[in-house]
Amino acid sequence: MVSDDAEVMDRITAGVRDLDPQPRQRRWVSLTFCILDAVFSIGARYDTVVVPLVRRVAADFDVAEPSVPHEVEDGPDPVPLGEFLSRYPNEANLVQATNKQRTSTRGGILKAEAVLRYARILNDHGVRSLQEARELLTDAVHLGTVEMELRQVPGEGTAGVRRGYLWMLVGDEDTVKPNRMVVRWLSAHGVDGTTPEQARTLLSKVSKRISSDLGRRVTAWEVDHAIWLAARSLG
Known about the structure:
Layout: H1 6-18, E1 26-28, H2 31-40, H3 46-60, E2 67-69, H4 81-87, H5 91-97, H6 111-124, H7 130-136, H8 140-150, H9 161-170, H10 180-188, H11 196-214, H12 220-233
Antiparallel strand pairs: 1-2
Helix pairs in contact: 1-11, 2-3, 2-6, 2-9, 4-6, 10-12, 11-12
């Protein structure tokens, strides 16, 4: 296992420490926006594609500020999933506010369809708001049932990258999104051929080591985000 190699762990820990991982700065105010981000961000430019389309959907519900500073106290979810599904009953409606990207270039479904399928699954399980999604994360049995259904939606990604990223957006601080940027950064630091599952384990251990070194909690999310920012800056 990569994470059992002391030399590798020291090298990756030092590299991440140099990136100065920081706590979340902003968060989405609605579960709807989290789902849109999780689905559309796979294989898409974040600042020029994902954020604008989330803002367009938010504008349809007169939500002027779809994201807020992380420390802002939670309010009611402004776009519960029931309202979102009523406004966009099918993918053709949602495409007009988003785009025609697909979950895969080879036979993938429209990302708009994947969003609606995610929303329907969660809504059917009584998870309709951001607060209810956070409560779901504390119920292992219910979460397992929901995840089994979410896993069936095309575009899952290797090792459930999309699902894990959704929970990160909802507020799970201990999950990472081991996408190609994270794997590429690890490769640049001498860790080649890392699977997403190995990357998850590695970065979780790195977060604990850095927490111990710095004397403050550094979450797996902070490590993941610091690496993502660094990898993105390299193009």
